[in-house]
TrEMBL record:
Record comment regarding domains: The RNA gate region regulates mRNA cap recognition to prevent promiscuous mRNA-binding before assembly of eif3d into the full eukaryotic translation initiation factor 3 (eIF-3) complex.
InterPro entries: eIF3d
Name the UniProt record assigns to this protein: Eukaryotic translation initiation factor 3 subunit D
GO biological process: cap-dependent translational initiation; formation of cytoplasmic translation initiation complex
Lineage of source species: Eukaryota, Fungi, Fungi incertae sedis, Mucoromycota, Mortierellomycotina
Family label: Belongs to the eIF-3 subunit D family.
Length: 573
């Protein structure tokens, strides 16, 4: 019989625990332990295995099944001190991503299964039905929600996005597209500032009511017969033989004369057009590239546009989740450049057609860009207004803007109010870049609000710019026209399907457009320009990032291009 021997017991008088460490435990790392911790087990057969980090509720999100409301032990058990590197923590290394179930049913059985067929057509949880080969942005977003809908779609050919976390294949292609800058940055250009849109969104500035300096031109009366136009009684958009020039600031004779006048003592003056100020005030909404030329001379600053600048044209679906893109076909009528030219043509003719040219209101002075003996002078009114951008008594900054109004509306009491005329255009709801737009001829009369909401989403920057320009001009109303192609494949013929009138301030509120934020951006750019030394500068919107950059450029920049354009015009004449 073997002898019984008591083990050696280490006794410590200074605290709790062993007094010394045995040599056989010297290489084992320390594991933090609390009396409240539960002891881990190698296998827990009482709890079914489920999705790691989630409850197994037996619903659509359950990957492996399991009892509803029962949480996996592996997911809930976290040892004390697990944030530290611990050799005793459980590490799950088995790759379950490759787990799949083989569908061995016959083709006939698959056709009779109603739930799977409905899911594949409706796109899982998204619930947006696919129509033909065209997929709207709502369908693409719905296909990316994951869950059983996305998994089924991925298994059935990737109709709506495949595995969870992956977008539609068009989204991959869209992320790889790169736009070209509006102007080529020269090697001699020196970048002075770079401002992100996130910083611009935080700016705020209050501006008092402006002072009217002078009014030029003539304005026709709006023809109220176009308020009765609808999809069943559409009006053909006519080509009006009237030009409408976008004269830049430095070429405006009125602004040139105002700049030549002696300023008040300590006054700093800034000159611009409503188009340029509208671009600055809505800069955070812009996606397409643009540029503004800034010239600092003495105590004045002039904001200009280049010859052939993109700011002279109207964009189409700039803010869409899938905007129009170049396909490489020069003859494509749905490319961004072709659509922009078409939209500009529509706006010019719409503003000239919906007015009664026989009822004209003459302003204080004649049109400053046309002689009295010239024919086909455009009916447009120019209001030169001065805004005070001073923040305190020691500062005296005046912003002088040339604004435009398109027509006059007479009320029943005989009162006249200024309005601006703009047109939204529909090109092809099934083409790439349509942005999920509805068929206007089917929905415009019955669902006008939905059509406007879609346009506010796809053309947020353009509409915000129009609203700002109307407010700068002091217009009481903004008249929007809905113009569509007569044939989606023909970009030369259009029809007016309806009109809508709105107040600029109310429309700005509906678009979540903060005018004070726009004035804050203008104030920041003006202060930045006034601190620069005399010279020429260019403010450039990055073509692919929400950033604007200020460059210092040589004084001869863009002058050669302008001279070449003038020589070409003389030769053509």
């Amino acid at each position: 019989m073997s002898a019984f021997k008591l083990p050696t017991v280490s006794d410590t008088q200074s605290g709790w625990g062993p007094a010394s460490l045995s040599a056989r435990f010297s290489d084992i790392p320390y594991a933090p332990y609390s009396k409240a911790d539960k002891l881990g087990r190698i296998a827990d057969w009482s709890a079914p295995e489920g999705a790691q980090g989630k409850d197994n509720r037996g619903g659509a999100g359950d990957q492996r099944g399991g009892r509803p409301g029962f949480r996996n032990f592996r997911d809930t058990y976290v040892p004390f001190g697990s944030n530290a590197a611990n050799a005793f923590n459980y590490q799950h290394t088995e790759d379950e991503a490759s787990f799949s179930v083989v569908d061995n049913r016959s083709a006939a059985q698959k056709k009779t299964t109603g739930f799977k067929s409905a899911t594949s057509q409706r796109g899982g949880r998204g619930g947006f039905r696919q129509q033909g080969q065209q997929r709207s942005q709502f369908q693409r977003l719905g296909g990316n929600r994951g869950g059983f809908g996305g998994a089924r779609q991925g298994a059935q050919g990737g109709q709506r996005g495949g595995r969870r976390g992956y977008n539609n294949w068009r989204d991959f292609d869209r992320n790889q597209r790169v736009r070209d800058a509006s102007v080529k940055v020269g090697a001699e250009w020196n970048m002075l500032e770079e401002i992100e849109f996130s910083r611009l969104n935080k700016l705020q500035f209050e501006v008092a009511d402006p002072e009217d300096i002078a009014q030029y031109g003539a304005i026709a009366t709006y023809d109220k017969a176009y308020d009765r136009v609808n999809t069943k009684q559409e009006k053909v958009l006519q080509q009006v033989d009237r030009e409408r020039d976008n004269v830049t600031t430095s070429d405006d004779p009125i602004l040139t004369n105002l700049a030549a006048e002696a300023p008040r003592e300590g006054e700093q003056r800034v000159f611009a057009t409503d188009s340029i100020i509208g671009v600055l005030m809505t800069a955070p909404r812009s996606v397409y590239p643009w540029d503004i030329v800034i010239t600092r001379t003495g105590d004045k600053v002039v904001f200009d546009t280049r010859e052939g600048s993109q700011l002279d044209y109207v964009s189409v679906n700039e803010n869409s989740s899938d905007p129009p893109m170049d396909s490489g076909d020069k003859d494509s009528i749905n490319s961004p450049a072709a659509l922009s030219l078409e939209a500009t043509y529509i706006n010019t003719n719409f503003a000239a057609q919906v007015v009664n040219s026989e009822q004209v209101v003459e302003l204080e002075n004649s049109n400053p860009f046309y002689g009295a003996d010239e024919e086909s002078v455009p009916l447009v009114g120019y209001r030169y207004r001065k805004f005070d951008l001073s923040t305190n008594e020691d500062e005296d900054i005046s912003l002088i803007i040339r604004t435009e109004v398109d027509a006059v509306v007479k009320s029943a009491q005989g009162e006249e109010s200024y309005i601006t005329l703009k047109a939204l255009n529909e090109f092809d709801s099934r083409a790439q870049g349509a942005g999920g737009a509805m068929e206007w001829r089917q929905k415009l009369d019955s669902q006008r609000g939905a059509v406007v909401a879609t346009e506010m989403k796809n053309n947020s920057c353009k509409l915000a710019r129009w609203v700002v320009q109307s407010m700068l001009a002091g217009a009481d109303h903004l008249k929007l026209g809905f113009v569509s192609r007569t044939n989606p494949k023909d970009a030369a013929r259009h029809a007016i399907l309806g009109t809508q009138i709105c107040r600029p301030k109310e429309f700005a509120s509906q678009m979540s457009l903060q005018v004070t934020n726009g004035w804050g951006i203008v104030k920041t750019v003006v202060d930045l320009a006034l601190k620069l030394p005399e010279g020429k500068y260019v403010l450039v919107k990055d073509p692919n990032k929400p950033v604007i950059r200020l460059y210092s450029v040589p004084k001869s920049t863009f002058e050669e291009a302008e001279e070449d354009n003038e020589e070409g015009e003389v030769e053509n004449a």
